[in-house]
């Protein structure tokens, strides 16, 4: 029946098969690796104007550009200037044409610089309806 009887040979070794448990661990590991989302930060802290309570969710698959109070433009923690916007974001937009572009402008930044960054993003191939300026 079930289990061992007293008459069984006592020298017989009992083995625990860990293969199914290891398979489950690897399946979970692969699942978590595939579903992980990485957010690309701009690399600088921007003092943004008060949005008046409007909430906006950032898409994890978006291009983030930051304009500081000193009118410097940053992308992925690197100062690129207004002229560098086109060359930095164009490859991403060629790969994914409908990728949103989010411009984070400091409240002390010049409006003209933010507009120039916006114009460069459009020249790079960003769709007008997929560009937003973060006011949060």
From TrEMBL:
Membrane topology field: Single-pass membrane protein; Single-pass type II membrane protein
Coiled coil ranges: none
Highest taxon in the source lineage: Bacteria
UniProt keyword Protein transport present: yes
Swiss-Prot/TrEMBL keywords: Cell membrane, Membrane, Protein transport, Transmembrane, Transmembrane helix, Transport
Matching Pfam families: ExbD
Localization (cell): Cell membrane
Membrane-crossing residue ranges in chain numbering: 20-39
UniProt keyword Cell membrane, yes or no: yes
Protein family (similarity comment): Belongs to the ExbD/TolR family.
Protein name: ExbD/TolR family protein
Lineage: Bacteria, Pseudomonadati, Verrucomicrobiota, Verrucomicrobiia, Verrucomicrobiales
